Amino acid sequence: MKHNWKHIIWETFTWIILLSVLIISLGFTENQRGNELCSKVEIQILDSTVNQFLKSEDILQILNDKNYKIIGQPLNKIPLNNIESDLFKNAFVKNVQIYTTIDGTFKIDIIQKKPILRIINYNYESYYLDEEGNLFPISNNYTSRVLIISGNINEPYALFSDKKAYEAENQDILKRETLLDDIFYLSSHIYNDSLWNSLFESIFVNEKNEFELIPKWGDFIIELGDTSNLQNKFTKLIAFYKNIVPKLKGGEFLKISLKYNNQIVCTKNNKIYE
Fold first, then answer.
1. Beta strand segments in the chain, E
2. pLDDT tens-place string over residues 128-169
């Protein structure tokens, strides 16, 4: 019994010594790393195959404009939090991660915002809406091929650039009704469905603030109305494309309306039937 206690005490003591040595070694290594000078900067735009709003040169320009000295500086003297904060302020940046490697490399990984819609308002001001409801400007580097909405849209970018589109109705910035929340709801519904995302080319907002869908296939306009009962309206549209469109020769209808409950109302092209 005494032997067992001695064995336990000796084993515990041994582990304490080993852990102490490990902690001291890690602290020494970390201190060494902290004093190591930065040898190079590496910037990766991780989603560059999807969007090209930003280039590595743009990130370097931000660092230069802010007078950050990185190359040749001790790693522990580089203000990582400040740099990260400044990069987050860029309108195209969704996420940024900054870290250093054991060889003295200062690494910046960037993920860009992902647009689902391009908005062109009635003043011909153009900006993007992303999947999280953020607005951000168009880029001189790259134009994303996304759904376009235009027409009677009276939402200036400057008033909503720092706000969520889906909260626009509650913000009362314009002292009148805004369509941004409905625009986000509709565009998200289309974007997240592979069928609708491939079918529609653009959306138009008419003078009644109702939505009209312009399909890539079909020589008619689809009147959606408002965004109420959206799922039901798209279910009716599926039935129309499945049962009616294959029988059309082309040009028979000017408009297909989904605004009415439990029915689809088609407006004939009178020129075809003259």
1. 40-45, 93-100, 105-112, 115-120, 126-130, 135-137, 147-151, 200-205, 211-215, 221-225, 253-257, 265-268
2. 999 999 999 999 889 999 999 999 998 899 988 888 898 877
